[in-house]
Structure formats: structure tokens, C-alpha cells
Write a structure and sequence with these properties.
- Helix content is 54%, strand content 14%.
- The chain is built from four helices and four strands.
- The chain has a two-stranded antiparallel sheet.
- A hairpin with a 6-residue loop joins strand 3 and strand 4.
- Helix 2 runs antiparallel to helix 3.
- Bound molecules: zinc ion.
- The site of zinc ion has 8 residues, from loops.
Amino acid sequence: MTNFLIFYNIINKGDEKLKKKFANFMKDRYGIDNLYMFLFTLYFILIIINMFVNSFILTILELVIVIIMFYRMFSKNRYKRSREEEAYLKLRDNIKSFFKKNKYKDKDHVYKKCSKCKTTIRLPLPSSIGFKYVTCPKCKNKFKTLVLRKQKVELIRKKS
Ligand SMILES: [Zn+2]
């Protein structure tokens, strides 16, 4: 018990000093950002997965993630680190919008890329699925494209 009290006293007394020291240490350093939070979440998920699969590769991966997290947090090159965060946010947005497109947010059109000039073309949904011939409005290239959705035609029967 006395041992514990002494230990507690040391920590408590050192608290202000440690706090100051830490604040001073972190003064010019980058700290935490969105990429840090992503890596932290990833690390956590990997730990949980690794509890079940117990893989050496995952353990190494966890270690690498922790090293990157700490390296970025304590880095003094704020410019480079914020550029990394920017790149991460851009990638995240791209992935998000990709999945949004795949969820058929636009229910009346289908988006296809021209095989020649790579322009994205918006086509009205045809009444049947399969290969369709499309003329690119930009380069007039005619190409065949596969359409996997068809327009839903609802039959409305009038009550007599
Ligand atoms: Zn084209």
C-alpha cells in the first residue's frame, strides 16, 4: 500500500512537468488528422481479425501501421503530412462516389465510357438488356456496349 502511495505521488507530482514537456515536444509536430484516424480504425480492425486468424503477415501489417501513425504524428514536416492527408481524402471521395454510382443513384440513365475518347456518355435506359449500339457525341465513334439494366415499365390498369 505504501509502495503504491509513493508511486502515485511521483506520478501526480510529475504530472504538470510531464504535461509541459509533452506540449513542448509536440509544438512543431504534425499531430492527428483524418488519415491518422483511418489508420487507427484499420489497426483496430486488423487486431480483431488477427485474434481469430492469428496471422504473422497481419501482425507485421499492424506494426507497419503503428509505425506510420507515430511517424506522421510526430513529424515536423507539416506540409508533407497535410499533402498526404489531402491525397487520402481525395482517394476516399473517389471510392465513395464510385460506390454511389454503382448503387444506381441515377435510376433513369446508364453511364458508359466511349471506347475511343474515353468520354463518359449518359444513355437513357433501354427497354431491354443486352448489347446496344451507341454513337459518341464527341468523336462520333460508334461502339457496342453492354447494358445490364432495363427501364422498368409499369402497367397501370385503369379501373373500369
Ligand atoms: Zn468518343
